[in-house]
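Note on ligand handling. Small-molecule inputs were canonicalized before submission; formal charges were left as drawn, and no protonation-state enumeration was performed. Where a ligand contained multiple stereocentres, the stereochemistry in the source SMILES was retained. For uridine-diphosphate-N-acetylglucosamine, this procedure yielded the string shown in the input block below.
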Amino acid sequence: MDKLVVHGGSTIKGAINISGSKNASLPILAAAILTGEDCIIRRVPDVSDTNYMIQILSALGADVERSSGTVRITCADICDEAPYELVRRMRASICVMGPLLARKGRAVVSLPGGCVIGDRPVDLHLKGMEALGAKIEFEGGNITLTAPNGLRGAEMDLRGENGPTVLGTDNVMMAATLAEGITVIESAAAEPEVLDLANFLNAMGAKITGAGTRRIVIEGVKELKGVEHTVIPDRIEAGTFMAAAALVGEGVTLNRVNREHLKAITAAIVKSGHSVEFNEAGDSCHIIRGENLQGVDLNTAPYPGYPTDMQAQMTALLTTTPGISVIKDSIFPQRFMHCAELKRMGADIKLDHGTAIVRGVSQLSAAPVMASDLRASAALVLAGLKARGTTEISRLYHIDRGYEHIDEKLLMLGAKVERIPV
Ligand SMILES: CC(=O)N[C@H]1[C@@H](OP(=O)(O)OP(=O)(O)OC[C@H]2O[C@@H](n3ccc(=O)[nH]c3=O)[C@H](O)[C@@H]2O)O[C@H](CO)[C@@H](O)[C@@H]1O
Ligand SMILES: C=C(OP(=O)(O)O)C(=O)O
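Structure output:
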């Protein structure tokens, strides 16, 4: 369990490359199950979540090779039961369910448990699989789905109480690629990661239209083939470094980004008084810390709204932004574990039913803090960069789930950070 020591109070400057998206990579790696041919996936970030997904695929019988950012997967002969010991470590392992069911006619996957960011049910995933004709049974903490005669296309609405489901849309879309007939998903998630998965599946020979909108239509095909694909840039990693640049930057450039995917995050950072300039191609941006800053009100929403995965980091930025900011998380109303730790560093935050009311203070002070989840840990790193003194962040494995070599990237920008193996 490594620790990160952040010596606060210095500035960051320079340029870094943003990695491939963790949340696009995970379902794309799982989608390789849909074919017996070789899939080559590039820019897969070297983070523990993608490593777990690779371990799950290997345990299912896939032949997997990883060399830096490129992963080659061949699922010539695979079994249909995902091992609990691996699945329980990562909620996104649920994305093997759709591909296994479509390819093997049966899938056994552990029911994911609760999570520190809130309740994370899979009822919408199962609603979709049932609509495609799967029989579902629960036993011993596992879900068993069967469709011995194959899946059939169907129309369904996957809207939940808090909006669409990203991995639920991915799962059903993957299952429907090999179903007989046409599937229509209404109230689908429109996140860029869903579109990236659809592009991967279409390159494999699937017939998917409408991905990236609220209505996805999938015409089932008999089989899919191997393909090469490059994963989209990680918009949350980019947003996190944008927030760092806004907090303590002296001119920071982020390369390998996608302007379109960053609109809501850019708007929030600009509204709080900083400047974000993109190059003409929209794949690089330069952030200059502002002088006349103001609080902003945010509410997380499905894409193209403000992403819940950037809520904690923006909360950290706003702790030292003058004025009052009201931050609501409508997608995961309990996702405020970072606030207690930020308060230990001197932040003025009041929590009220899924809303954080942040009153900007002039300075944070370093403290030993504990990471509770992936984005909460990123928020603590940001606060540590800004704070006076040395902040020690324990349970760094949370941040290693989703940020590729974050300490090395911060060092490249001139931050004073040290990873201490414990
Ligand atoms: C690996 C990955 O890509 N993870 C992302 C994905 O998670 P994930 O796909 O698991 O999140 P969902 O989009 O499914 O969750 C959105 C909302 O729907 C609810 N819900 C979800 C499924 C379901 O069957 N029933 C139900 O009620 C959830 O509790 C939540 O309130 O999207 C989230 C929302 O953008 C992000 O925070 C996660 O980083
Ligand atoms: C919550 C996240 O991931 P996961 O859905 O895998 O827990 C995230 O990436 O912020």
